[in-house]
Amino acid sequence: HNIFQNLQSYDSSSRFPRPEDERHECRDGFEKHLLGEAIKELRKAITKHYNHGCAAQVWRIVGGGTTDGIIVRQKCDLSSPKEDARLSNGALVEQLGLEGERLQYRLIRGSGPERGWISTRLKAKGA
To answer: What is the dihedral of CA 58, 64, 66, 67, to 10 degrees?
Structure first.
């Protein structure tokens, strides 16, 4: 149903009080609720469109250009095992989690492990 159909149904109902009135008090309250829900759905669709089909944050990998990609670990901890493959420079990843400077991701575009943990900042040489 769209907003217009829901309001038309509300207006043509012969029940008083209407079932929607219990939650929204009156027609104006019900209409405001319907508009709020429609705005939420629109925001989700816009976010998904601009984030390459993902509802979450999307990151572009900018490191690893000189090293065949960046290191991916199996868990958040820096001492956890490394994946065999690296995540390619220019890859797009969906953020699944973020703990400090560690990003859990799912690969959208590019090459490398489908999922894993990466650092969001470059470690300074000699540090």
So the answer is: -140
DSSP state letter for 13: -
Q: What is the DSSP string of 67-127?
A: TTSB--BSSSSTTSPBPSSPBPTT-EEEEEEEETTEEEEEEEESSS-SEEEEESSPPPTT-
Structure tokens at 59: 């990151």
Rounded Cα distance between 124 and 69, Å, is 16
The CA-atom distances, in angstroms, between 122 and each of 31, 54, 63, 125 are 50, 25, 8, 9
The CA dihedral of 74, 80, 83, 88, to the nearest 10 degrees, is: 80
Residue 126's identity, in one-letter code, is G
Instruction: Please check the confidence at residue 31 and state whether its pLDDT lies above 90.
Output: yes
Q: What is the pTM of this model?
A: 0.59
d(CA 7, CA 104): 43
**How does pLDDT run across 37-78, given as a tens digit for each residue?**
999 988 888 777 776 676 678 999 999 988 999 999 999 999
